[in-house]
Amino acid sequence: MPTDPITVWLGRLQAGESSAAGALWQTYFHRLVGLARQRLGAAPRRAADEEDVALSAFDSFCRNAEAGRFPDLADRDSLWRLLAAFTFRKAAHHVRDAGRKKRGGGADAGGDIEAVLGREPDPALAAEMTEECERLLAALGDQDLRRVAVLRMDGYSVDEVAERVGCAPRSVKRKLQLIRGIWEWEAGDGTA
């Protein structure tokens, strides 16, 4: 039986007990806001600020956790890495969208994840994972492929991805096969 309250709350959330989300939110709110602030940098905050980004990231995480999309998520370390990834992605989307609205593009989201994750165990691993994820997504080159990859990483099924991107499941499977090929090539430093 887990004695760590984070692990207990996480288990309750995954079991569909939405009240556990409040306890997790109280624990991680300030850190997620700080992470979002770091990632947003000098981006305009008219439409949304760092608290909005943190709330959106946490909401996405909770919906996915309650839907059973993270079966291997079991402790505070993996929870923080996942929350950080959601927050970084939401902040990057905000910066991208703000840049579209502003003539001449937006500011770079910047931010060193290793410095932000400081208090949690193994921040170097979290930074390495984030950098590698960003590198692999950039290697796809195609926005549609990136969207399919992100949705699958978020735990959506092939059918759910197909519905969200507006194509047939068979097309999603072909895109996933292409993504795997690109990523295998990238993992082999382009020599495979």
UniProtKB/TrEMBL annotation:
Gene Ontology MF: a single term: DNA binding
InterPro entries: HTH_Sigma70_ECF-like, RNA_pol_sigma-70-like, RNA_pol_sigma_r2, RNA_pol_sigma_r3/r4-like, WH-like_DNA-bd_sf
Keywords (A to Z) from UniProt: DNA-binding, Sigma factor, Transcription, Transcription regulation
Keyword Phosphoprotein: no
One protein family per Pfam: Sigma70_ECF
Family indicated by similarity: Belongs to the sigma-70 factor family. ECF subfamily.
Name of the protein: RNA polymerase sigma factor SigD
Protein's organism: Urbifossiella limnaea
